[in-house]
Write a structure and sequence with these properties.
Elements lengths: L7 E2 L4 E6 L2 E6 L1 H7 L2 E5 L6 E2 L4 E7 L3 E5 L4 E6 L2 H4 L3 H4 L8 E4 L12 H8 L2
Antiparallel strand pairs: 1-2, 2-3, 3-9, 4-6, 5-8, 6-7, 8-9
Length: 126
């Protein structure tokens, strides 16, 4: 299982990568494998403030729909438009082309409560 050590993780299987004062967010390699083939990503929170642990969208796989939970509080600045035509990017490259949103960071201290790759790996049995 791919667990980049430069990312933080949530128990709900999202990852977050901080670049300056913005964060990129997506779902983990473990989550995409559990969901199976992803056919649609629905995110309607562009330009909206989302609280930590609040739903910012959904991801639809062949057999299920799953909520996406924000690891931090912030405003959604960008939705990955690449996913409109290629939702399978979440399966093939969950930490790269398959990122879902870019958001501002309202409270940097929230990052401290997130999981390291090692802790998340232990949670999912990696």
């Amino acid at each position: 299982m791919n667990l980049p050590t430069d990312l933080k993780y949530t128990k709900e299987h999202e990852w977050i990568r901080v670049e300056g004062d913005v964060a990129y967010i997506g779902i983990t390699d473990h989550a995409q494998k559990e969901l199976g083939d992803i056919v649609y990503v629905d995110i309607d929170t562009l330009d909206k403030e989302v609280a930590q642990n609040e739903v910012f969208g959904t991801v639809e796989a062949v057999k299920t729909v799953s909520d996406l939970f924000s690891p931090i509080t912030g405003t959604v600045l960008e939705v990955n438009s690449h996913l409109d035509g290629s939702p399978e990017s979440v399966n093939s490259d969950p930490y790269g082309d398959g990122w879902m949103i870019k958001m501002s960071i309202a409270d940097p201290s929230e990052l401290d409560a997130l999981l390291t790759a090692e802790t998340y790996g232990g949670l999912v049995g990696a």
